[in-house]
């Protein structure tokens, strides 16, 4: 249980949160028409006769959109309804040419499921928490109104009209802004793993309606909720909840009551304001869309959906800590984003192959390189770095040389710097630039012998029990070798010779 | 030389094919007949050039020895509910006045592909809502038939396909398209002494047909013989991937398979259709029909369709509910009429546009539909109506255990005078009492002429068959047609 509380004048309050996330389905064509869904086209360039609701036009379901929603449902281990149906939600607005949105009220495609948000002490989530998901249904997006194009008129862009959305409805299982934020992030991660939504909140591919109510700590009845519409970032979701919960506590403690209403979030002020109350809410007159037959999914289709699912975030994380022996921290960081794990896994495979060891033996080295060493070098170089030069082969080659003791950690960074700037081959760089460490025992032994001869007093002290002097000898040896000696070899030889 | 306008679909097609006359001659004859029949007000716009161009192409194809289509050289009337490319498509409404689509409906395209040409866009009840063609924004259509009492009262041609029925009965078109939601092909066919078939729901694509009630709307042919209907239906039907409710079935060779020998067939006579208030002469024509079918070899069986009395109320919930949503797109934003009062906002524009653009009957049905779908009323009306619909489907399924098709009257009365029922919507709705059950069940149903009543007006008989069995319906229709000997024609007064 989260310990998020609002201190009111009359006592402590807790907040109850449910989220309806609208996620744009990744597909080339719209939910019921063949018009393109690509972002950024000229206004009204991607509008079919169906999208414009010309007389006599009929919707035909896009199989790919259904498939993506089913795969998403499977990824949250939800019940997939083999029989579902589209309903019309009727209302008039200029961004809705048909005068109704085709959605699924009565029989959604996906039923009960759940996802787990990960423990994060820092933000007040002491342990992993399961958030139940009530349903996922598919529906059409609306168009976009533009109010800034003309002094007295509004313009309409129908490019987005009819694009497929998944509405993912959670149960009111979250009790703090941090949990809600973690939920949205986890959901986004799953969607991106599955490939059913690009998760791009800036472009509006994902947005959330935030349901918030408050109650006194210990109460079991839910308070009256408000719904804040179309919040389009994780940070804003959290801000909206903080503000809305505090507002509700203030209203109640001032003797008022919360009205069930739709609210708008203002990102500039971080506050919410009333949009419309339940009294003037629309009567959407939902009824089954008579232009469409019920959606019936056969076993082969479901099997195909399931077979196409990738390894999902939780399973991947468990495999990273279990099979690969990575730390919890590394596993979490590496699995958070699709791009991160994809890069890591490619590099891991290449490195293991190059070194000729199983992946688990080199996984920690590759993880540390991927999460801290490489990003550090890239960051330090700034604009000088050309990421395109940092191929998996080149990085694997560096890690290979390092694992074999041919180069030191410092040399690895230096070589990577040159790779990033010039795109040269790491082995060639090591040779040409003299960035190799000496593992030749003869040369090192010679240096050590000289140092022992020149520092007889220190040798005496060391042998007398002053262990700390070992570091002095290492330092002297490395200095004599101009920093290029393999530290492991130096250590070993020094131990032998000092006795 | 034969009066070409007296010919039907097959006669024209065959005559063109064997060189008895040219397609252009046919088109010109009908174009002239259409131009001379303005008093009927059957057409909203005429398209003589379309008919001529199609005819020229057929003549050229024939000259080149190419294979000719099923409808080659036949000029037809197109109900103005079908979108026709670059030709005004209005659904007989003010709100779509002047609207010229950039697309062609699937059904009309199929007809053009089969070699037909278009004489014009036929008048209808506004958005196909009505049973008398009096709700059109473009004026009433007059039935070519008149009572034999010497009076000249204009009669309703039926509706909603009233322009279609009037044109075919008046011989200004050999055939026409119709659409049938609750009887809009069959009732006007009965009122004008012609034939018309509504096929199984899904046989004809709805793509490009202005929607009234999507779960009921079906296109079908109207012509003066069963065979002509069969030929034209073959050209109109077929799977269309652009309509999700389209049937993925091959189109049978209905015309070639026509067979009036009904030996071994059972005709079901539903006892619930003997309703109070049904015209005595209608009942008598029904008895005639039974006798004719018996003569054709069919066995007569009494059947029960117990939920028949709930069909009409259920229909007048489901159809308006769907219509209230289907007609939401006519909002003045993208096409058609826009009424934008001074300083009006978006909602004001909607209200003004729709108030000016829709007729009374359309408004009435939008209001009914909006009401029955409203929160708090949905279960009492829409849900109940959908249950009734299922029960009616089951009634028919049970009936097919006992019979191969059903015979019933098409309408409770013959054609009535224009204006008679205009102020009494309920009396008007009662016209659909015999036709609505087959619509709710999605079944093929046909009206064929059975004779004249004592006023000299045609009466129709209706045959309803099992889903996908248009052949059974057409065969029974042919058996009646052969025995009814219906050769009467309306006397030309226009």
From TrEMBL, chain A:
Function: Allows the formation of correctly charged Asn-tRNA(Asn) or Gln-tRNA(Gln) through the transamidation of misacylated Asp-tRNA(Asn) or Glu-tRNA(Gln) in organisms which lack either or both of asparaginyl-tRNA or glutaminyl-tRNA synthetases. The reaction takes place in the presence of glutamine and ATP through an activated phospho-Asp-tRNA(Asn) or phospho-Glu-tRNA(Gln).
Asn/Gln amidotransferase domain mapped to chain residues: 342-498
Entry GO MF terms: asparaginyl-tRNA synthase (glutamine-hydrolyzing) activity; ATP binding; glutaminyl-tRNA synthase (glutamine-hydrolyzing) activity; transferase activity
EC number: 6.3.5.-
Annotated GO biological process: glutaminyl-tRNAGln biosynthesis via transamidation; translation
Subunit structure: Heterotrimer of A, B and C subunits.
Reaction catalysis annotation: L-glutamyl-tRNA(Gln) + L-glutamine + ATP + H2O = L-glutaminyl-tRNA(Gln) + L-glutamate + ADP + phosphate + H(+); L-aspartyl-tRNA(Asn) + L-glutamine + ATP + H2O = L-asparaginyl-tRNA(Asn) + L-glutamate + ADP + phosphate + 2 H(+)
Top-level taxon: Bacteria
InterPro entries (UniProt xref): Asn/Gln-tRNA_amidoTrfase_suB/E (IPR017959), Asn/Gln-tRNA_Trfase_suB/E_cat (IPR006075), Asn/Gln_amidotransferase (IPR018027), Asn/Gln_tRNA_amidoTrase-B-like (IPR003789), GatB (IPR004413), GatB_C_1 (IPR042114), GatB_Yqey_C_2 (IPR023168), Gln-tRNA_amidoTrfase_suB_CS (IPR017958)
Keywords attached to this entry: ATP-binding, Ligase, Nucleotide-binding, Protein biosynthesis, Transferase
HAMAP family: GatB (MF_00121)
Family annotation (NCBIfam families): gatB, PRK05477.1-2, PRK05477.1-4, PRK05477.1-5
Protein name, per record: Aspartyl/glutamyl-tRNA(Asn/Gln) amidotransferase subunit B
Family: Belongs to the GatB/GatE family. GatB subfamily.
Automatic annotation (TrEMBL), chain B:
GO-annotated cellular components: glutamyl-tRNA(Gln) amidotransferase complex
EC number: 6.3.5.7
Residues spanning the signal sequence: none
Biological process according to GO: translation
Active-site residues from the entry: 79, 160, 184
Reactions performed catalytically: L-glutamyl-tRNA(Gln) + L-glutamine + ATP + H2O = L-glutaminyl-tRNA(Gln) + L-glutamate + ADP + phosphate + H(+)
Protein name per its UniProtKB record: Glutamyl-tRNA(Gln) amidotransferase subunit A
